[in-house]
Amino acid sequence: MEDPITISDDEIRKRYVPRVVDAEIKEMLEIFGAVQISGCKWCGKSWTGVAHSQSSVYIGSPKNRALADTDPDAALRGEEPRLVDEWQDVPALWDAARHNIDFSARRGMYIFTGSVTPPLESTRHSGAGRFAPVKMRPMSLFEAGDSSGAVSLSKLFQGERPASSMSEGSYMKVVKLICKGGWPAGLNQDEKKAMLISKKYVEMIINYDFSKLDGVKRNPATVRRILRSLARNNATEAKISVLANDVHDADMPMSPITASGYLDVLKKIFVIEEQEPWLPDIRSKTRQRTSPKRHFVDPSLAAAALRLGPEAVFQDVETAGFLFESLCYRDLCVYSAPFMGNVYHYRDDSGLEADAVIEADDGKWAAIEMKLGYTKVDAAAANLIRLKEKMVGGGAPEPIFLMVICATAMSSYVRKEDGVYVVPIDCLGP
Fold this sequence. Notes:
By secondary structure, the chain is α/β, with parallel strands linked by helices. It folds into 2 domains: 4-135, Rossmann fold; 151-429, no CATH class. The longest helix is centred in the middle third of the chain and has 24 residues, at 191-214. Helices cover 40% and strands 16% of the residues. α9 (191-214) crosses α10, α10 packs across α13 and α11 (240-247) crosses α12. The protein is globular, with a radius of gyration of 22 Å.
C-alpha cells in the first residue's frame, strides 16, 4: 500500500476495501466529537480514516509535524470529519481537539489514528466523553476475500443456526493464509511478495520501533530473541519467567522484569495482544486460571519471527496448530466487534479449557474450540459439552451456541448428536 501522503485522498477512497470496523466508526462519529482509531502499523488505519473523513493532515510529514508542533489548532482546521494521522507524534493535538469539541458541541469533528499508545502524561485529559476509541487489526479472512462469510457470527449470537456453506479450504491453503497475513498491502500480491511484508515488519520492530517508542536503545539481537521466544510460545499462557529463561544465556542474561519491559513495548505498539481469561461468576470447587494467552496481532508475524515459510509450517503440525489458533482469534475479534463482544479463553485447575469464549455486552456467551484437523472435531465437541455442563451447573446461563472452527471440514453444519456447530474458518464472517 502506498504512503497515503503520496496519493490523493480521493484516489484512496476509490481503491478502499471495506472493513468490518466501518459501521462502528460511522456510528461513533454520529455520537462523539471524535473517533480514535488505534492498531498496529500497516493494518489500514490511515485508509480507513480517509474513507470516513472530508479532509486530512498527515503528521508523519515533516512539514505537517512542524506546523502541528507550532500551532496545533492550525493543523486541526479543515472540513469535518478531519483525519489526523499518527497524532501521537504531537500529543498536543489531542488536548487541542478536546478543547475544540468541548466548546463547539459538534459531533464527528475529528478522526485520530495512531500505531503507538502514547504515555498518559503526554496529554492532560483522557478524552473520555469526547473521543470514542476504536480498535483495528489486520484484515480478517472475510475482509481479504478469503472467506465467504456465509456463517455470520453476529447472526449466531442472535440465535440463528449456521447457514450450510461449502468450504474451499485445505490444510495447506490455511497454512499459506497464516504466513501471508492480513496486511492490506498484500492484497492482489503473489504469495512470495505478500510474505515479505511480515518479514520486513519484524525487521522494522527489531531495528526501529523499540527505540522510537521510549528513546531507550536496545540490542537488536535481544529484541530478535524475545520475538522468537514469544513466537515459540504463541497462543499459550507462558509465564514471563519462561520467556526470560528462553532468551537468557551467558552473553545476554535476562530477568523477568526486563522481559516484562519488552512485552510492555510490544503491547504499546500493538504487536502483541493478550487474550484475557474468562472468569464467570459460578459455583465451582475448581479454581479458574487467571493468566492471559499471548498472540501476535497477526499470525504471519509469529511465522516470520521464527523464519518459517508455508512448507516448514505445514510439516510442523504443533506450531501450525498454535498459529491457526491466533488466526481464529484475530478473526473472532474482528467479527465480534459489531456487537461489542469480548473474546476470552477459559482454563481451570481440572484441565477443562476452551480456546475462546465470546461474551456479548448483554451477557450472552458462546464457547469455541479451534482445530486444524477434522478428525479432532469429536473430542473438541465433547470438551465443549463438558464446559457447558459445568457452567450451567454452576449457575451460568445456557450458552447461545458451542462451535468448533476448523481448517479442513468440507462444509459448515450442526452435529445431530449434541448440537455443536462445526464451521470451516473460510466460511466464517461478521
